[in-house]
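To the wet lab folks,

You asked to see what we're planning to order before we commit. Fair enough. Below is the target structure as tokens, and below that is the sequence we designed to fit it. If anything looks off to you, flag it before the synthesis order goes out.
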């Protein structure tokens, strides 16, 4: 029997957030943070709307989850994000002490792995969940951007 609340289920929720970002003209990255199979934070990129380079989906989700929990640490939480976190977001995730990170598409140029960013020693990271869907959304966004310019 397939568990109703698995990595694919929650990554689909993150992809819904990425679609919202796409519709707003933001780079389509979405994120949700989950504890005990419950989504406690939903977010997407807002860097253009807020004119803030730190307004990545992960940063927005960390803030929302911390507010929900009433504390700065995200123990027993899992971040689902459609794109591998960048160095900045990985640093914030380090300090939040999040337990798990699950991402969709790998970021070959700016991802935390290629940048050599250290995550918290207790944080587990899994990549490639719905990678094709996440990658296609990003590619569609940038193709449309190039065709408009």
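Sequence we intend to order:
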């Amino acid at each position: 029997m397939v568990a109703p609340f698995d990595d694919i289920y929650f990554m689909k929720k993150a992809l819904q957030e990425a679609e919202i970002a796409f519709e707003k003209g933001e780079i389509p990255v979405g994120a949700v943070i989950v504890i005990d199979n419950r989504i406690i934070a939903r977010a997407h990129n807002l860097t253009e709307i807020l004119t803030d380079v730190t307004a990545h989906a992960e940063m927005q989700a960390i803030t929302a989850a911390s507010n929900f929990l009433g504390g700065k640490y995200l123990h027993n939480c899992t971040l689902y994000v459609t794109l591998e976190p960048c160095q900045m977001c990985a640093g914030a995730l380090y300090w939040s002490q999040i337990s798990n990170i699950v991402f969709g598409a790998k970021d070959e140029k700016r991802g935390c792995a290629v940048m050599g960013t250290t995550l918290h020693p207790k944080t587990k990271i899994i990549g490639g969940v719905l990678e094709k869907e996440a990658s296609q959304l990003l590619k569609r966004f940038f193709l449309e951007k190039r065709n408009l310019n």
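Structural context that might help your review: The longest helix spans residues 131-148. The mean pLDDT is 95.

Thanks,
Computational group
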